[in-house]
Write a structure and sequence with these properties.
heterodimer, A: 111 residues, mainly alpha, Dissimilatory Siroheme-sulfite Reductase, Chain: A, domain 1, Arc Repressor Mutant, subunit A, 2 domains, two-stranded antiparallel ribbon, 2 strands, 9% strand, B: 513 residues, 3 domains, 4-stranded parallel sheet, globular
Chain lengths: 111, 513
């Protein structure tokens, strides 16, 4: 276990830097995690992050990549509803890197 | 994720044995499972105080239980036939990634404690005490073996390195020194039902979304049913098929095959995972417990057939172990009376192979003329096939030897026009592991995964350059995830890998047949 400090407050993360307590997440923590990943957050990133969090709140899991691309396509236009666009935003992969920044647990298994 | 930049080794036109790089991978250590992860599946939370005695005791127990392990410990003559057969050795140059050297990490301790010469004159026979350093070395290097068993193909004594790795991991788990990736996943299977941690409502939502997508794409209402009692077929597939790209394309393909052939089928929330990481950690109890979910789901749903989706090690477990583990397959009613195994045997339709691989099912339907294809739909693809290790070397398909090689290839040739084979010595029973199998498909081992993929990437590069191959098909969720991740490091496109049923999905005719 490790901790990160944001605005003078400590947050616990797992070995891989994922926040252990989802409820502790706030935008500042998100920005800090993004910085660690060398991702400069834009409004487009926030669209994804917010969708991930909404979906997680309903289903207790991040959405399938396909569900995510479809939702982003609906919101931001069909030309952005593909995984290539998501990889541009989150180069290590939308499933893992975006989840990390959004404070969600890492999707595990053969993904 | 944002660690130092990892570079892939250079691909060579003529692969040679690499220059030795002693200790190159010694510092590579997959994350150790924390207390919560360990205890959830019944292992000690952290390294126990009497780990030495416990480890030796466990080794003795395994040597007694598995005759094979004792034979493997005794019979190696260090001929070196295996030394240059491991993809991790070829990619890293670390001599401890030679299968013989990896096994000797355990064999040296075996000699010290279980042979007379090793007890009396340890130094003369290369016997070592199990010190903390040796234990750490075990953890490091036994978590750098993907249990792919390529080395075993070349061993004149038939020593199965994977079994040695499994035994080592079992010993490590029992002293509280487990690997996070595998053990966390096993915990999720028991708690949520699958490796991914995908709860039932999310699964249902994902499948509904797929039905909408397929309807939109094809104009045909293909169904992706969940928990339907009385369906003929229960499909058990890796949970990655519900979540990841390109995996989900194959799931779409399975559904289209069932639709076109008019077979009623269902997925199950309880058995929403074909994978069985119990095998990777060499723990029989976990292997059985995870497999048991499939039997329970089959009994509850009353299905007549059990079909396994595109997952390499799941098919090995299903084909090779389910019959004695859980009573799915021929011969399961023998031995100790198990009322539920007997009930399942009478429920299943034995005109079909039980269990059956989705490739067997599709190929049988093609042979019977029950499904047909518009092969030109795949004309933008020049396809090659990557044999997945657990299918190639741990199982079979169909009624003839080598069916596990021919059936997937036959399907590809039946659904597409352009098929190219990679070089001999890199396919069929000599196939190279993708570099991410056996519980190593984790971000903290990315460096190892990239290097371990070198032999496959070199073989792919030859057909990509020479014959324009732009699609590598495979029937394993690990292979798909691993290649999607590492292909770009070698200058290939991520989308170059996909499933056999992704190809089926592209060209199958969905009429009113």
């Amino acid at each position: 276990m490790a901790t990160i400090a944001v605005d003078g407050k400590d947050y616990e993360t797992d070995e891989e830097g994922y926040l252990t307590d989802l409820s502790q997440w706030n935008e500042e923590v998100g920005k800090f995690l993004a910085q660690q990943e060398n991702v400069d957050l834009t409004d487009q990133h926030w669209e994804v992050i917010n969708f991930l969090r909404e979906y997680y709140n309903e289903f207790q899991i991040a959405p399938a990549v396909r569900v995510l691309t479809k939702a982003i396509g609906k919101k931001l236009g069909a030309e952005k509803g593909n995984s290539q666009y998501l990889y541009e935003l989150f180069p290590y992969g939308p499933a893992k890197q975006a989840c990390k920044i959004a404070g969600l647990p890492k999707p595990t298994g053969c993904v | 994720m944002a660690g130092p930049e990892i570079k892939a080794p250079e691909m060579r036109a003529y692969p040679l044995i690499p220059r030795l790089a002693p200790g190159a991978m010694a510092a590579t250590k997959s994350y150790v499972a924390n207390e919560k992860v360990q205890e959830e599946i019944g292992f000690p939370g952290k390294l126990v105080d009497d780990w030495h005695d416990k480890a030796i005791g466990k080794m003795g127990e395994l040597l007694g239980k598995y005759r094979s392990l004792k034979v493997f410990m005794d019979s190696c003559v260090h001929c070196g036939a295996c030394s240059d057969k491991c993809h991790y050795f070829l990619g890293t140059g670390d001599p401890k990634n030679m299968p013989v050297a990896r096994q000797d990490l355990m064999r040296s301790v075996y000699r010290r404690h279980f042979t007379l010469a090793g007890k009396l004159v340890p130094k003369l026979v290369g016997a070592r005490e199990l010190t903390r350093d040796v234990l750490d070395e075990w953890y490091s290097y036994f978590n750098q073996c993907s249990e792919c068993r390529r080395c075993s193909v070349f061993c004149p004594y038939g020593i199965d390195t994977a079994e040695v790795t499994m035994a080592a991991r079992e010993i490590l788990d029992c002293v509280g020194y487990g690997q996070k990736y595998s053990n966390e996943i096993i915990g999720k299977v028991h708690k949520i039902g699958n490796n991914l941690g995908l709860p039932g409502p999310a699964l249902a939502n994902t499948l509904e979304g797929l039905e909408e997508d397929v309807l939109e794409d094809t104009g045909v209402a293909v169904r992706y049913p969940l928990d339907v009692k009385g369906a003929e077929v229960l499909l058990v597939t890796p949970s990655a098929d519900f979540f990841a790209e390109p995996h989900i394309e194959s799931l779409i393909g399975y559904g289209k095959v069932f639709h076109a052939a008019g077979i009623s089928w269902t997925l199950s929330t309880k058995a929403s995972e074909a994978g069985n990481f119990g095998m990777f950690i060499g723990n029989y109890e976990q292997l059985r417990k995870i497999a048991m979910r499939v039997r329970e789901a089959a009994l509850e749903l009353g299905v007549k057939r059990i079909v396994v989706g595109e997952c390499g090690h799941a098919w090995r477990v299903a084909y090779s172990f389910w019959n004695t583990l859980t009573g799915i397959g021929e011969g399961a009613a023998g031995g100790k009376p198990d009322p539920f195994a007997i009930q399942l045997q009478s429920q299943l339709d034995h005109r079909y192979r039980q269990p059956m691989h989705i490739c067997e099912l599709t190929w049988d339907l093609i042979g019977a003329g029950a499904i047909s294809f518009d092969k030109e739909a795949n004309d933008h693809r020049i396809i090659t096939f990557h044999d997945s290790c657990n299918v190639a070397r741990g199982s079979r398909m169909g009624d003839t030897a080598g069916g596990q090689f021919e059936i997937p290839r036959n399907i590809i040739r039946a659904v597409a026009n352009h098929y190219v084979e990679m070089a001999p010595g890199t396919t069929h029973e000599q196939t190279f592991c993708c570099g991410g199998g056996g519980g190593l498909l984790t971000d903290d081992l990315l460096d190892l995964r990239i290097k371990g993929a070198l032999p496959r990437m070199e073989a792919l590069n030859l057909v990509a350059g020479g014959q324009g191959v732009n699609f590598m098909a495979t029937i394993c969720a690990i292979c798909k995830a691993q290649f999607s991740k590492i292909l770009p490091y070698y200058g290939f496109k991520m989308g170059m890998v996909g499933g056999v049923h992704q190809l089926v999905s592209t060209s199958i005719k969905l009429g009113d047949k």
